[in-house]
């Protein structure tokens, strides 16, 4: 199963401590430049002033979503561990942190969007963060 930890997102907030100006790098990414260019082109076409640059989604937001995902997974495991037929005195309310199907779908959608934005952030000066993990066979995973 694909989880944030398997994607390497469980340690993403640590990257912000080790990579100075991570938000600025995200804002200078090719995706951010292309988004601004599209907005500027649309504004000029409509005869409006060019809008200011919009910051890219924050790396902190990615961390927040990963925490929400992990809380949902814990609540889901707790919910599935309950007896199928609860007794009369047992609490039948869903555990705290369990998301509805629609909320979970939105969470996953936003997570993958933020992952896509994170892929455009320039990290080459920080090879220890950007380098792929070696595969057991010794063959590159790229």
- Biggest sheet, in brief? none
Structural class: mainly alpha
State the shape.
Answer: elongated
Number of strand segments: 0
Radius of gyration: 20 Å
Number of domains: 1
Approximately how much beta-strand content do the residues carry? Answer: under 5%
Order of helices and strands: HHHHHH
Oligomer category: single chain
- Tell me the helix content: 40-55%
Give the low-confidence spans: 1-14
Question: Could you describe the 3D structure shown?
Answer:
There is one protein chain. The chain has six helices and no strands. It has 142 residues and is an all-alpha fold. The longest helix is centred in the middle third of the chain and has 23 residues, at 59-81. The two termini are 21 Å apart. The protein has one domain (9-130). The protein is elongated and about 65 Å long.
Protein topology:
Layout lengths: L11 H7 L3 H6 L2 H16 L13 H23 L19 H18 L8 H4 L12
Helix pairs in contact: 4-5
Features:
142 residues, mainly alpha, disordered N terminus
At a glance:
Helices cover 52% and strands 0% of the residues. With 142 residues, the protein is mainly alpha-helical. α4 runs antiparallel to α5.
């Amino acid at each position: 199963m694909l989880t944030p930890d398997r994607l390497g997102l469980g340690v993403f907030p640590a990257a912000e401590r080790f990579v100075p100006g991570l938000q600025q790098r995200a804002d200078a990414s090719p995706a951010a430049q292309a988004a601004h260019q599209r907005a500027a082109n649309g504004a000029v076409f409509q005869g409006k002033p060019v809008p200011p640059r919009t910051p890219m989604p924050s790396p902190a937001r990615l961390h927040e979503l990963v925490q929400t995902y992990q809380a949902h997974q814990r609540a889901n495991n707790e919910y599935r561990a309950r007896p199928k037929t609860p007794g009369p005195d047992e609490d039948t309310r869903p555990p705290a942190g369990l998301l509805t199907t629609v909320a979970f779908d939105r969470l996953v959608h936003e997570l993958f969007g933020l992952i896509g934005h994170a892929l455009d952030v320039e990290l080459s000066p920080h090879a220890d963060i950007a380098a792929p993990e070696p595969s057991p066979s010794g063959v590159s995973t790229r």
